[in-house]
Specification:
about 280 residues, two-stranded antiparallel ribbon, 5-stranded parallel sheet, 10 helices, alpha/beta, 7 strands
């Protein structure tokens, strides 16, 4: 298992990748990507059991679905550094004919990507179908998914949340990135959702909260606890409280960087705060 320092170094390199990828094409979503860098690092570097000899079926391995697909930069960086495809391919992000489109797609055959996502609200439905397929196949591995808090304003999520509990889909861990921000501002200003914990519990889910969602050890502890809660007739939800733009001082505490690329001077400042650890592509 990697040490906490190794996971922090990995995360820091992922942040650099995110910033450089988005800057190079003046397009993309750095805010949410930076906020979830620690989570993806923990998931792929320590928690999930998977093979980089990628196949779409994911038989006898843990699988992950990204529902809020606009944060593809963090997903691509972690997949590359985890061995799914060459790190050098990150330089093609959002290029025409690249496998690394702005929102993940499947027809390019990029290893690690099992669904096209970015049309918000659909990922949980797919994850639940996969979880039920694993049960039918006597596959004991788990299904993980990630969703934005603003994304929960989409109604399809709540149909899926209701279905999961009704059908006792207990081999899924759905994580909600609770950063309190979306493209138009604070979630509480755009469409207040009240207590997400109370809502999920009312729908029959087990819920745990990770208050320090950008802390490696807190995330690992939360994921370990979540795994211990699976297999008990209820789906499991993690409410992961993160900071959008984490690791870059001028991108934090604002929704402004949800979908905006840094200019040259801003990139220089952001990279100075995150020196290379694993080497740049």
């Amino acid at each position: 298992m990697p040490t906490t320092q190794q996971l922090q170094d990995f995360t820091q390199q992922v942040r650099r990748d995110i910033l450089r990828m988005v800057h190079a094409v003046n397009s993309g979503h750095p805010g949410g990507s930076l906020g979830c860098a620690e989570f993806f690092t923990c998931l792929y570097q320590e928690v999930m059991e998977y093979s980089t000899d990628f196949n779409m079926d994911g038989i006898n391995e843990d699988v992950f679905f990204l529902s809020n697909g606009h944060i593809s930069p963090v997903f691509y960086s972690v997949l590359a550094h985890s061995g799914f495809f060459p790190v050098s391919e990150l330089a093609t992000f959002r290029h025409i004919d690249s496998r690394l489109q702005g929102h993940p797609t499947t027809h390019e055959g990029l290893p690690g990507i099992r669904i096209a996502s970015g049309s918000l609200g659909q990922g949980l439905s797919v994850a639940l179908g996969t979880a039920q397929a694993k049960k039918l196949n006597n596959d004991s591995k788990l299904v993980y998914s990630l969703h934005g808090d603003g994304e929960l304003q989409e109604g399809q999520n709540w149909e899926a949340i209701m279905y999961a509990a009704a059908k006792k889909v207990d081999n899924i861990i759905a994580t909600i990135d609770v950063n309190g921000k979306q493209i138009d501002g604070a979630t509480d200003e755009v469409l207040p959702m009240g207590s997400l914990k109370a809502k999920f519990e009312a729908f029959g889910w087990e819920v745990l909260e990770v208050k320090e969602g950008n802390d490696i050890e807190a995330i690992l502890s939360g994921l370990k606890t979540a795994k211990s809660m699976t297999g008990k007739q209820k789906p499991v939800c993690i409410l992961l409280y993160t900071e959008m733009g984490n690791g870059v001082d001028f991108m934090m505490h604002t929704h402004a960087w949800h979908g905006k690329a840094p200019n040259d001077a801003q990139l220089e400042s952001a990279l100075a705060q995150n020196p290379a650890t694993l080497g740049d592509y």
